[in-house]
């Protein structure tokens, strides 16, 4: 299945990151166009693909994960380190789609002080 999906794991709590706002932008010349905005569910995934196969184009994309809001939420208080201003705010992940028949899964592993991503399957 082609298209774009994600999965966010809060590695500091060992849980999926629920309630994270995720925005997808597509580069158009020098500008960035907002394509979609979703929120992760209790499994740290979006309820539907971020971008469906028929909506996907060869282009440069950027996912913006609103992680600062997630760690500022009182429900995630155990993950806070005591600062009122989070170290991480919006985590951008820029990537290119070069093959329309391949699936692009962009997982994010996050803690209050760090993050990592990779091309998943």
Please supply descriptive tags for the structure shown above.
121 residues; mainly beta; Immunoglobulin-like; 4-stranded mixed beta sheet; 4-stranded antiparallel beta sheet; 1 helix; 8 strands; globular
What's the CATH H-level superfamily name? Transthyretin/hydroxyisourate hydrolase domain
Secondary structural class: mainly beta
Distance between the termini: 10 Å
Label the overall shape. globular
List the total number of helices.
1
CATH second-level architecture: Sandwich
Task: Tell me the β content.
Answer: over 45%
Mean pLDDT: 91
What is the H-and-E element order?
EEEEEHEEE
Q: What is the CATH fold-level name?
A: Immunoglobulin-like
Radius of gyration: 14 Å
Number of domains: 1
What report would you give on this structure?
The protein is mainly beta. The chain has one helix at residues 67-72, and strands at 3-10, 15-16, 21-28, 31-39, 59-66, 90-97, 103-111, 114-117. The chain has one domain (3-117): Immunoglobulin-like. The strands form two sheets. A four-stranded mixed β-sheet has the order 2-1-7-8, with no helix packed on it. A four-stranded antiparallel β-sheet has the order 4-3-5-6. The mean pLDDT is 91.
